[in-house]
């Protein structure tokens, strides 16, 4: 997980994000993929993603989404509601390599059914690709 953060921080955010705590959720969540506590700088990923059937690309995309929350924080609208997913946020999310493929994969495969498989030590195929894509 920390390796995902480090590679995405370098490749996408030019190392501008200060370190944050990365952890898996205690329980499997039905729908939510990840959460980001912007103030405490904690990213929690659904432990259901900790499954060898889930490609690294998906984990990377979810972490990227949560890292965008660290990057943008939130904007407060006139009536005081916090807006996290601004147009700017969504535009930045879409340029992530693998974003479209991840959305498609999640649409077809999420939530996962059946027994989770133990996640392999990542070969980092996708992270290598990401580093190449972003130079
Ligand atoms: Zn979000």
Can you tell me about this structure?
With 135 residues, the protein is of the alpha+beta class. The chain has 5 helices and 5 strands, in the order H-E-E-E-H-E-E-H-H-H. It has a single domain, classed as Zincin-like (2-Layer Sandwich), CATH 3.30.2010. Helices cover 41% and strands 12% of the residues. It has a 3-stranded mixed β-sheet, covered by helices on one side. Strands 4-5 form a two-stranded antiparallel sheet. Strand 4 and strand 5 form a beta hairpin. It is globular and about 45 Å long. The structure holds zinc ion (ZN). Zinc ion is lined by residues 65, 69, 84-85. Zinc ion binds next to helix 2.
CATH topology: Zincin-like
What CATH architecture would you give? 2-Layer Sandwich
Count of folded domains: 1
Any low-confidence stretches, pLDDT <50, length ≥5? none
Radius of gyration in whole Å, from Cα?
A: 15 Å
Structural class: alpha+beta
Q: Span between N and C termini?
A: 21 Å
- Name the helix and strand elements from N-terminus to C-terminus, one letter apiece: HEEEHEEHHH
| Percent of residues in helices | 40-55%
Biggest sheet details: 3 strands, mixed
Which kinds of small molecule does this entry bind, naming each only once? zinc ion
User: Strand order within the widest sheet?
Assistant: 1-3-2
CATH superfamily, by name, is Metalloproteases ("zincins"), catalytic domain
Q: Count of DSSP E strands?
A: 5
Tally of separate helices: 5
CA-based shape: globular
Q: Determine the strand fraction and express it as a percent band.
A: 5-15%
Q: What is the CATH level 1 assignment?
A: Alpha Beta
- Averaged pLDDT, please? 90
């Amino acid at each position: 997980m920390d390796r995902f953060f480090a590679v995405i921080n370098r490749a996408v955010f030019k190392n501008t994000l200060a370190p944050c705590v990365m952890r898996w959720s205690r329980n499997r969540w039905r729908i939510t993929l990840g959460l980001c506590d912007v103030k405490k700088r904690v990213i929690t990923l659904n432990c259901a993603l900790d499954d060898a059937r889930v490609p690294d690309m998906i984990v990377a995309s979810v972490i990227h989404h949560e890292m965008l929350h660290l990057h943008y924080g939130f904007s407060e609208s006139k009536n005081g509601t916090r807006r996290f997913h601004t147009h700017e946020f969504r535009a930045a999310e879409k340029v992530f390599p693998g974003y479209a493929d991840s959305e498609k994969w999640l649409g077809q495969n999420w939530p996962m059914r059946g027994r989770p498989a133990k996640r392999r030590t990542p070969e980092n195929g996708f992270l290598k690709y990401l580093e190449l894509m972003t130079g």
